User: Which sequence fits this backbone?
């Protein structure tokens, strides 16, 4: 039997509530060479910064928890007041590219330039530079870790190699999972082959994830999007899940940055994975 992970406050498991606050930036990047005339998906995604994020902030405030928002620089520039509201409400701002660019689509110099630009802007809003990063669509390149470390970033939250924090090179990895990403359930732009899942279906699935984490002593890292989970019926079910987690009494709830700092403070001898940076790429 493996040794249990030492979660903050001696808790049995952990929950991070996170939002990829990307609005229309993924579509702008994906269709940059052939902008469509159809504005339907753009407007659907704009619901996030226009309205959805306010539903999110109201819910988090009522629940009394802090979340992590991974924000593309373009969103912070275009919807600065909404991102300012996130910071003013006490939540963590972290990097998510400039216009939702996957690291593998850029050279190291281009990645450095885009993340520096985004870090400068988020730092201006928050009064301090972001400590963390999440790659767009969880698509990560090995070279990005060195760029992030050089920029003073201390954690990444893009990969799925463990269900507890671990180390990749100089960075703490706070892992994610497709099963706890709302886009798998809710994303529907008219082209998908199935309708979006209902809020109750996602709540049932994530409640099972929470139960499993409590049994195994692991992390649930929820990845949500204000344009999806910011819809009223959906955000109400998130509030129910947070209430359940708090009522359990054995689940630590906090930001990704707080969890990464906790992992760093543990020092050596932590019973989890440490991955040399030169081993995460394609085997030679």
Assistant:
């Amino acid at each position: 039997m493996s040794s249990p992970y030492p979660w903050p406050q001696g808790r049995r498991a952990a929950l991070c509530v996170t939002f990829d606050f990307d609005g229309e930036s993924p579509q702008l990047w994906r269709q940059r060479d052939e902008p469509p005339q159809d504005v339907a998906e753009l407007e659907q995604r704009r619901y996030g910064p226009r309205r959805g994020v306010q539903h999110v902030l109201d819910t988090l405030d009522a629940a009394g928890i802090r979340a992590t928002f991974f924000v593309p620089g373009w969103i912070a520039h275009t919807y600065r007041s909404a991102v300012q509201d996130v910071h003013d409400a006490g939540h963590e701002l972290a990097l998510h590219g400039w216009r939702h660019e996957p690291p593998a689509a850029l050279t190291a110099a281009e990645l450095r330039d885009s993340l520096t630009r985004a870090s400068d802007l988020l730092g201006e809003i928050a009064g301090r530079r972001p400590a963390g990063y999440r790659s767009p669509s969880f698509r990560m390149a090995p070279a990005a870790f060195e760029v992030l470390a050089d920029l003073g970033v201390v954690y990444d939250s893009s990969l799925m190699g463990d269900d507890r924090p671990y180390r990749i090179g100089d960075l703490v990895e706070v892992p994610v999972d497709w099963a706890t990403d709302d886009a798998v359930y809710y994303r529907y732009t008219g082209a998908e082959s199935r309708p979006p899942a209902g809020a109750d279906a996602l709540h049932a699935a994530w409640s099972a994830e929470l139960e499993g984490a409590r049994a195994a002593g692991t992390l649930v890292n929820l990845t949500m999007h204000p344009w999806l989970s910011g819809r009223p019926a959906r955000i109400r079910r998130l509030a129910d899940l947070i209430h359940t987690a708090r009522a359990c009494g054995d689940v630590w709830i906090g930001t990704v940055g707080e969890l990464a700092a906790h992992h760093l403070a543990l020092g050596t001898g932590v019973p989890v994975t440490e991955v040399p940076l030169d081993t995460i790429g394609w085997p030679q």
Notes: The CA atoms of residues 145 and 269 lie 23 Å apart.
